[in-house]
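Write out the 3D structure for:
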Amino acid sequence: MAVLRWLPRVANGGVELNVITAHGCSGDELRRPTHCPTLGAPFLRHRLVLARDAVRTNGSVPRTITGDVEECQRPDNFDPAKVLGSIVICTFSEGFFNQISTIRAITQTATTLDFMGFILMANPNFGDYVAEPTIFSSPGILIPKVLDSQLIMRYYEEKTYRDRGGVVTQFGARARINEGRNSVFAGEAPVVSRFSSRGPAFIDANQNPLDVLKPDILAPGHQIWGAWSLTSAFDPNFTGRRFAILSGTSMAAPHIAGISALIKQLNPSWTPAMIASAISTTATGYDSSGEVMSAESYGIGELFPSNHFDHGAGHVNPARALDPGLVLPTGFEDYISFLCSLPNINPDAVRSATGAWCTTKLSHPANLNHPSVTISALKGPLVVRRSFQNVSNKTERYLGSVVPPNGTIVRLSPSWFTIRAQRIQDVDIEFNVTEVLNQFTFGEIVLTGSLNHIVSLDDFTANLLIKLVSSSKVSVTLEREVVQCLQIHRFVIITFTPQAVEHYKLISKVNNKLESTPPGSLPPTPPIFHPLAPTPDIISFCVKEELCPSSLPSFKGQQARVEVRLREGIAVNIKR
C-alpha cells in the first residue's frame, strides 16, 4: 500500500561534490565527467578526428553518414587507419535521443579500433543532454552543452584541411583527456535531483490527495561513489569492479539507513518512529549558502526554489539528528488507526497488507503523530494534536511560534511549555481558513528550546493542505523578516531564519545577559499573548544593546541595522 507511513520515502539530492575532468583544446580546458585520461596526459596530445570524417569508404565512395556513424556505435563504420591512436569525436544524435544508442557501444568501438579516446558531444539539433559520470573501459569524455561542443568544432575545423569535395586531407587538431577521477566542491548544494520522486501523495488512481507528506526526507542520491559487488550484473560497465558511481533512490536510501543505524546505536531504546522523527525534525530546507534549496526541473540546467513536495522535511543532517531534543513517538497501532481512518478505505485491504483489523480510527487522518501534518481538504476549523517526547536528560522550556500557510490562521495550545526529561507534552494545533486558495501553500511552526533545541514544523496546504516537520533552523538573512524576540518570565528566545549558524551565539549572549539581570528589573509577563504578536513592552525590552548595529555580527560581510516593527507579527527586522 502506498500509504504505509512506517516506511519513510526518501528523495534524491545532489551534493556539493562533482566528478570532473579536463579536455585540452588549443589551450582551452573544458571540465566534464569521465573516467580515465588518455596516454601521456597531461603532456601528450593526440590527433582529433570527427567520426563522420573517418567513415569507411565503399571503393572510392564513402558510406552514407547515418546516426550510428556519428554516434560511434559500430566498428565496421570506420576506416581503422584514420581512427587508430586518435581521439574520435562522436555526436549525440537520434539514437541517444531515442535511448537506443549507448555509451557502452562507443567504448566497444573504441576498444576494437584502438581509439586513443572518444568525445561524445552535444548536437545543436537536439540541444544539451544530461551527462552522468560513469566508468568507461577506454578514455572518454562527455560534453553535454551545445556551446562547449561548438567551441571544440570551431577549433577542429580551423585545424583540419579538406579538398574541394570536403574530404579531409590532413587532421591537424590535437587534444588530450585529462584525469577525471578528481572531485571539486562547487555550485548550489544540496539540490533536489531531476529524477527524484515528488509529492503530493495520492490515495487512489483518481489522484485524490492523501493526508501524508511525500517525500519524507532528502538525502544524497546523485553521483554517489560507493562499494560495489564484483559479481553484480546490474551494469556490465561495473562487472568485476569494487566501486561504482550511481544515482537514484538506491543511493539515497542507504544514507538514511546508515544514519538510522547510528542513531539506534546511540539510543538503543528508540523505536523506528522516534528515529524517523529525529531525522525529519533536524533536517534543513536551505542550501550551503543559506538560500532556499533549489530543485532541478525537467528542463536541462533549469532550477527553481524547492518546496516540501520536493525535499520533504529537508536535507538530512546526521550530526543534529543525534540530539533532536524532542521526538514524536508513534506505535504500530497508531499506524493501523491512521490507515483505517482514510476515506473510502477497504478494511480488508488494511488486513491484507498489515495483518491487523480495523478496530479504532483517528478522528482525522492528520492526527497521526508524525513529524509532518498534511490536511488535504481544510474546509473549516480543525484541531489536530502532536505529542512530543523530551529525549534529552534535562528539563527544557519550549516556546512555540507560527508562520501560517497562506489562507490560514494557525494557533498552538499551549504556545509554550516546560517538559521534563523523557516526559510527553501534547500540543494542539488549530487551523482556521481565512481564504480558499485551491492550491498548495506552506508555512512553519517552530518550537524553540532553552537548551538550544529548535524544532520547526513546516506547514503546507492544498485546498488548504498543511504539513508540519521539525528541524533546527537558527540563522539570519538580510533583506527579509528575520528576528523574533519573545519573553517568557525571565527567558528570552531569539529565532533567526534561514540558516546562518555563525549568528547562533547571539542567543546565548542575550540569554546569559538576562540570567544575570535581577528579577525585579524584568518587565512583567503579559497574561495572554500570541508568539507571533509580541507586545511593544517586550519588543523594547528584547531589543537592547545586544542587537544594536555595533554588536550584531555581519552576514557575508554586510553591515546590518536593526529596525523595531510590529508588522505581520515580526518583532524585529534586520536589513542592509
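The chain has three domains: 10-15+188-323, 18-184, 475-576.
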